[in-house]
């Protein structure tokens, strides 16, 4: 299978297959159909990322709210995601950041608008796994 490498200098993204490397943050992101099509509970999201094998890596996890915010493009609408991601859509994604005052909720981002919101862990949302890239 032929691999395509694409570098988007304006946003510091390097796209390789189903992984996007964000040069400014040093994070690699899952970028495949699973990121857009599958809705899971928070517990299922953790298990999904833990089991994910993408781009020859197996150390994926649910991103923090700060990490997830780093790929939002607040100048765009529907979807509000940096150019270079092949999937994202106008859907809500989980973060691992807990909601203060309610341990049954975590923060997430709606990639239609870039808005943040806390939801119960039993809701179903999309997941985009992340890993810290080794230099």
Automatic annotation (TrEMBL):
This is Lcl C-terminal domain-containing protein. InterPro entries: Lcl_C. It comes from hydrothermal vent metagenome. Residues 19-131 form the Lcl C-terminal domain.
């Amino acid at each position: 299978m032929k691999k395509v490498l694409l570098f988007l200098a304006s946003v510091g993204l390097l796209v390789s297959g189903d992984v996007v490397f964000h040069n400014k943050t040093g994070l690699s992101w899952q970028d495949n159909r699973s990121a857009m099509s599958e809705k899971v509970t928070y517990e299922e999201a953790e298990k999904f990322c833990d089991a994910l094998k993408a781009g020859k890596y197996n150390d994926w996890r649910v991103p923090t709210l700060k990490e997830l915010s780093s790929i939002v493009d607040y100048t765009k609408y529907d979807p509000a995601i940096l150019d270079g991601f092949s999937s994202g859509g106008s859907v809500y994604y989980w973060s691992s950041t807990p909601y203060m005052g309610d341990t049954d909720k975590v923060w997430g981002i709606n990639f239609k608008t870039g808005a943040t919101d806390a939801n119960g862990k039993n809701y179903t949302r999309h997941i985009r796994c992340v890993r810290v890239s080794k230099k």
